[in-house]
Recover the amino acids of this structure.
């Protein structure tokens, strides 16, 4: 283990003082997974890979262990945790959920189709078993069965459900590699399983299952690696008549209010440098009130999709395209990794992400278009809703306030 840690330290940032390192990084094998399971049983924290992102796990039934997750991540108690189980049967056997036969009849085929996989079901919690901190005092619990051999082994050998949000500091970019976890939580007393890069690279889709007067409805609270179209197609194919809707674009909540799903705050998945959405239009709405400010691109990192922002390539500090082929699955897989890479570039002061809301208007053959809303949601929150529109020699910026009003300013583009 000591040799492995010494090798691991070779890839860490020079900004990190070795003397401040408190975490332990382990290679993944049968022995280390068993060790990690023992740590979970004893009330400790373990970061482990899933098919979506790396999680920071604790025994979901141990309220003290759960509280450690919030403290380690600096996460507000208003943001609930997703509980990972081996299957739906385990959630029922442990009496984690308090649901009717109507709800059970709906979620059984969903679980059979999409589990293991990136689907989280938000169900009424059995508060006699589940700590309120897991539910953010809402009475609802998010349940997921991960499609990861490492995660499945860890759950089975821990012999308990594992509460696990993303293994990063709260509101920072989600981790898709163990080194991302290390860079955020190196000074915390946790164990990190050094597994592979996550397959999807975007969180699970969170679906609330709610019953009113005997009628069950589905609401997608958080867009993720499972698209609304995939879910609806399955329901139609099986002849399951149920309402499926999703929260609107740009919907967000205040950190002071208790949430039934994670990922709903305006600032989320955010780099450590100022970040904006960036789009190009032929003419900006003349009704906007504006003022002029200079902006210098030589300290800006551009994150493109396709080649829509190609004109900035020669003038900015850094340019990366999430997918030159305009494949949204590829773009999702690279999104968090690219943001973490961009924030660590020397001398970077701003990151500008292509505004995916304009993708269909900007033209071109977009592959896997059913995930357009998902990646827009992640980009929107990464930028905290701030938006820059390029119009000839001008750039306009808008920033939503807590009251959802819009304020505008104008930036002149200064090329390097």
């Amino acid at each position: 283990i000591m040799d492995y840690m010494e090798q691991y330290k070779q890839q860490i940032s020079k900004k990190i003082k070795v003397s401040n390192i408190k975490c332990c990084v382990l290679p993944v094998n049968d022995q280390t997974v068993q060790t990690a399971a023992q740590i979970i049983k004893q009330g400790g924290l373990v970061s482990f890979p899933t098919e979506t992102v790396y999680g920071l796990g604790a025994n979901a039934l141990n309220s003290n262990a759960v509280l450690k997750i919030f403290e380690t991540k600096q996460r507000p108690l208003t943001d609930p945790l997703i509980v990972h189980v081996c299957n739906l049967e385990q959630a029922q056997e442990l009496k984690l959920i308090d649901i009717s036969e109507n709800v059970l009849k709906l979620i059984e085929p969903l679980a059979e189709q999409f589990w293991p996989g990136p689907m989280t079901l938000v169900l009424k919690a059995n508060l006699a078993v589940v700590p309120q901190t897991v539910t953010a005092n809402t009475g609802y619990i998010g349940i997921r069965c991960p499609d990861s051999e490492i995660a499945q082994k860890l759950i089975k050998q821990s012999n308990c459900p594992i509460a696990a949000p993303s293994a990063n500091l709260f509101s920072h970019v989600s981790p898709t590699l163990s080194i991302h976890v290390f860079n955020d939580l190196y000074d915390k007393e946790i164990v990190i399983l050094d597994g592979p890069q996550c397959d999807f690279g975007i969180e699970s889709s969170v679906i609330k299952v709610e019953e009113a007067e005997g009628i069950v409805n589905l609401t997608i609270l958080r867009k993720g690696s499972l698209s609304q179209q995939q879910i609806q197609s399955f329901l139609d194919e099986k002849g399951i008549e149920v309402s499926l809707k999703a929260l609107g674009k740009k919907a967000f909540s205040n950190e002071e209010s208790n949430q039934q799903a994670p990922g709903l705050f305006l600032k989320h998945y955010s780099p450590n440098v100022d970040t904006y959405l960036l789009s190009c239009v032929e003419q900006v709405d003349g009704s906007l009130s504006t003022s002029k400010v200079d902006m210098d691109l030589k300290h800006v990192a551009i994150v493109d999709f396709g080649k829509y922002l190609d004109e900035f390539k020669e003038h900015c500090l850094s340019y990366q395209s999430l997918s030159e082929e305009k494949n949204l699955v590829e773009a999702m897989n690279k999104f968090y990794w690219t943001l973490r890479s961009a924030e660590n570039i020397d001398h970077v002061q701003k990151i500008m992400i292509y505004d995916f809301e304009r993708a269909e208007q900007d033209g071109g053959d977009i592959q896997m278009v059913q995930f357009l809303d998902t990646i827009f949601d992640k980009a929107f929150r990464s930028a905290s809703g701030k938006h820059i529109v390029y119009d000839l020699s001008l750039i306009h910026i808008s920033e939503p306030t807590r009251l959802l009003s819009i304020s505008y300013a104008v930036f002149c583009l200064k090329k390097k």
